[in-house]
Amino acid sequence: MEVKVIGFWGAYPEKGEATSCFLLKKNNYHLIVDLGSGALSRLQNYIEIKDIDAVVLSHFHNDHVADVGSFQYACLVQEQLNQLSVKIPIYAATDSPTAFKQLNHQATVARAYDAINPQQIGPFNITFMKTKHPKPCYAMRIECGDDVIVYTADTSYFKELVTFSENADLLIAECSFYKGMNGTKAGHMTSEEVGRLASKANVNEVWLSHLPHFGEHQQLFEEASELYQGRMKLAYEGLTWHS
Ligand SMILES: [Zn+2]
Ligand SMILES: [Zn+2]
């Protein structure tokens, strides 16, 4: 199994880059996790549109779904070019019914997931947990054979995240704020909270993502390192994890 960062910014993409988007690959199956602004363009550095098998969305904030419309047009064009034989499923929760329905398009189909039943998407078995965020948002525990990847999506720190992330091979954690700031109201985590989460959950590796447009990101890394001594990386486009 392979995990690749496509976009890692919070809010909006810096020049030539993208907000949240990850490419998961197992054998010939390709799953996209979130499709933020700029992501569709950056994705094509690594994969052709016609080879994308499914998309799963954590929530309907623009920095996670802004390129869904572009993706639907891209799928439509691929279909017209006879490159696509089936509608591409886009998985999301149904808390926002209007946004959910818009995932249906000529060449894409909306598929619902929930926090109760794990969802099998190709080779990936995904368990969802609702996070603490202003819009309904879901963290994902993605299992594939012996590999466990946890993606916090957007959330403030809460203790159930620790159990949810326990012993993950890779934790992709949102890290929107610096140590000493208060992310609770905005529904985001600080570097200190990410360090605590990674340490308590005993994960093997952590990536800091959903990065802010202020301060020095290296400081986030150092602050998280005070609590977590394992392998840690600041997300960047192309950063790849292999099992
Ligand atoms: Zn959000
Ligand atoms: Zn976000």
From TrEMBL:
Domain Metallo-beta-lactamase per the UniProt entry, residue ranges: 18-210
A GO molecular-function descriptor: 3'-tRNA processing endoribonuclease activity
Q: Which UniProt keywords apply?
A: Hydrolase, Zinc
Q: According to the lineage, what is the superkingdom?
A: Bacteria
Listed Gene3D superfamilies: Ribonuclease Z/Hydroxyacylglutathione hydrolase-like
Q: What is this protein called?
A: MBL fold metallo-hydrolase
* Species the sequence originates in: Filobacillus milosensis
